[in-house]
Amino acid sequence: MKNILNAPFIIKLAATCENMYRLGWDERNGGNISLLLGEDEVSEYLDTSKILRVIPTGFEAKELCGKYFLVTGTGKYFKNVKGDPENNLGVIRIAEDGCNAELLWGYQDGGTFTSELPAHLMSHMVRLKQDSEHRVIMHSHPTNTVAMTFVHPLTEGEFSHTLWQMHTECIYVFPDGVGVLPFMVFGTKEIGEATAEKMKDFRLVVWAHHGIYGAGKTLDEAFGLIETVENAAQIYMLTEGKERINIITDENLKALAENFKLPYRKDFLD
Ligand code: 13P
Ligand code: ZN
Predict the structure, then answer these.
(1) Residue 114 beta carbon below 6 angstroms from any ligand 1 atom
(2) Which of 102, 116, 121, 247 sits CB 3.0–4.6 Å from 93 for a disulfide?
(3) What is the mean pLDDT of the chain?
(4) Which of 32, 143, 213 gets mutated to test ligand 1 (max ligand atoms within 8 A of its CB)?
(5) From ligand 1's centre to the CA of 252, what distance in Å?
(6) Quick check: CB of 74 below 6 Å from ligand 1?
(7) What is the 3-state secondary structure (H, E, C) of 38-65?
């Protein structure tokens, strides 16, 4: 059995957490990530018949029975993941009843998975239906994205349109736009359900006054989506209150979308 600390999925996820912390997106224990793993991938490093603990998830996720996830721990700081993966991360398998998680590795200090597991698992279920190669759900608190939710209307058409207008790459990276949820209590089944509902149409979901969710086939893809929104939100916040004398018009956006044959949300343009 190979040493799991050398597994590419641990190394890459830890490096992603470090990046996100260094970018200032994940203060304290802010943010969480879950990565869907294949059984063969896990079996190289762990005896999958050895269950360390059974932890109730608090909801039913029958469709994910037998699926393996690498998940950040609740209350854990992204800045500490790389130096101490075994306390800050866990490998879980969704049990046959769909209501429990079987811990196979990690959360060594007695900890458990992120409090946002409902939003993660429900979003995984939705995204897997859209894309069989889907693997990652990532949550973060990027400052400018959150700031924008205080000063910009929260309808997803308007929010997506403004982001597209802040940088020419935005419509290219997320032609599907972003979903937006109003203030909701975080860590609940309700916000998990609402996030997953948005994930039917979007790979990005902004939580007003809190942060953002991104979905992708890889850690880089989910990270890159969030990074692009945050970059646009920063430009928005830097120019907000000033007269924008040069803007990206809808004609410009249409020309870009047509040039790259993007499946963009046409109803989000004026
Ligand atoms: P966890 O520490 O439980 O992952 O929660 C962090 C967070 O960002 C809540 O939304
Ligand atoms: Zn959060």
Answers:
(1) yes
(2) 102
(3) 98
(4) 32
(5) 39
(6) yes
(7) CHHHHHCCCCCCCCCEEEECCCCCHHHC
Q: How far apart are CA 133 and CA 115, in angstroms?
A: 25
75 Cβ closer than 6 Å to some ligand 1 atom: yes
CATH architecture of the domain 1-114 equals 3-Layer(aba) Sandwich (3.40)
* Cα separation, 219 vs 214, whole angstroms: 10
CB–CB of 114/32 below 8 Å?
yes
Ligand closest to CA 206:
2
120-141 confidence digits (pLDDT tens): 999 999 999 999 999 999 999 9
CATH 3.40.50.620 is held by the domain 116-270:
no
Which amino acid is present at 161? H
Q: Quick check: 270 pLDDT over 90? A: no
Q: Where are the domains of the chain?
A: 1-114, 116-270
Q: How many CB atoms are located within 10 Å of the residue 106 CB?
A: 24
